[in-house]
Amino acid sequence: MKKRKIIFWVATILIILWEGVMPLSTLLFAPEQATVGTRPLGYPDYFACALIICKVLGVFAISYPGIPVKLKEWAYAGLTFNLIFAFISHACVDKNIGFMLLPLVVLVILAISYVYNPKLRTNG
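RESULT FIELD:
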């Protein structure tokens, strides 16, 4: 039981840092850098800001204990879609293998967080 919680929190903290803290700190403290990842892919600047806000809300939903389970599942789904589409965007536009693999690595960490989330487990 304790091992499952540790795995969940390690994976979730990595997601919090990667998908929540880093983008939000960029938006707040270096707004000129907020579009560095999306502009070369052809997305408008406002898309990066909306994406950052959605990521932060999703990270909050999966990590805060008082959020209902259905909302947590939607947050996991939204973050999953974000990472899948990031992979697709990089695969279609810049074809840089490093940029393509990074969202997939984060997706694996997100999947670990989901599988080990004690609120979403039905088998105890």
